[in-house]
Amino acid sequence: MSRSSAAISARDWGLIAALSLLWGGAFLFISVGLRDLPPNTLVLIRMVVASLPLLLFVRLSGQRLPRDAASWGQLAILGTLNVVLPFILFTWGQTRISSGLASVLNATTPLWGVLAAHFLTHDEKASPARIAGVLLGFAGVGTMIGSDLAGGLSGSLPAQLACIAATLSYALASVYARRFGASGMPPLVIATGQVVTAALIMIPVAVLSDTPWNQPMPGAEALLATVALALLSTSLAYVLYFRLLENVGASNSLLVTFLMPIVAIVLGAAFLGEVMTARQMAGIALIALGLAAIDGRVLRVLAPRNIVP
To answer: DSSP letters along 234-266, please?
Structure first.
């Protein structure tokens, strides 16, 4: 039995719940951190602080970071696609939209992932069910931002488009990361390498865009939220994610995508007073249906028992 079809243990459900909380809570931490920190400075602090425990985890596990320039070049590309670009876009986007809406847009990553894998790989072509899931998901996105499109590039539309562009970057990163499969580089080393290179890339970006030395000293609440974002929603989350990936496979790990927006919406409502509109809720429902079709779990349960694929 493959890992994607095997039953998920209680411990792995605990990992799924913990990851959903950590990554769903990231949107709350970003909103609080942005009260006192410019977006790119927040991303820089997040990356620098997150690098430290990851480097320690690599050392304690007895693994080693690569020593050749070619590997670090590949890690820098992965770090740009999987960390720098999406983190910059999502963090800037949350200066204009709610944390809950940002988390819902983040959940569209698997939609782009299906398209990227279909067009950019030879062995991951989309099935009819996955294509239907992509269409449903993008219908949900259109429902949420459709009326904003009619008004042109004003209001929250640029922020929503930035978040969608970030999810496309995540999808491209997932395709690019396939090349690490033959390298023998352990997943924890890959995660650490991309965060370290992202931190180095963010130094000139934050310096040039935010001139941090001209900014007032952030308050304790914003600093604590940023540290929590780095240590909990980045370092610890990466470690748990790769443990989950090893235990249950990529397909079952997709369950985290379903739960993250729920966590973010609940936290946003409880701590930030955010409210989702009816139009946004309708979009969420369509995106959830699309993700369910891509995952295939619900379809397998509902399909007649006598039909053999």
So the answer is: IIIHHHHHHHHHHHHHHHHHTHHHHHHHHHHHH
Q: How far is the C-alpha of 272 from the C-alpha of 307, rounded, in Å?
A: 48
Global pTM? 0.89
DSSP codes, 36-102: TS-HHHHHHHHHHHHHHHHHHHHHHTT-----SHHHHHHHHHHHIIIIIHHHHHHHHHTTTS-HHHH
285 with 141: CB under 8 angstroms? no
CA 274, distance to chain mean position in Å, is: 21
Task: Return the CA Rg of the chain.
Answer: 19
Give the chain's length. 309
pLDDT tens-digit readout, 142-177? 888 776 665 555 668 899 999 999 999 999 998 999
Are the C-beta atoms of residues 33 and 225 closer than 8 Å to each other? yes
Instruction: Give 3-62 pLDDT, tens digit per residue.
Output: 544 568 889 999 999 999 999 999 999 999 999 999 999 999 999 999 999 999 999 999
**What's the token pair of residue 253?**
């790990």
Q: Are 113 and 171 in contact (CB under 8 A)?
A: yes
Identify the residue whose tokens are 């590949």: 74
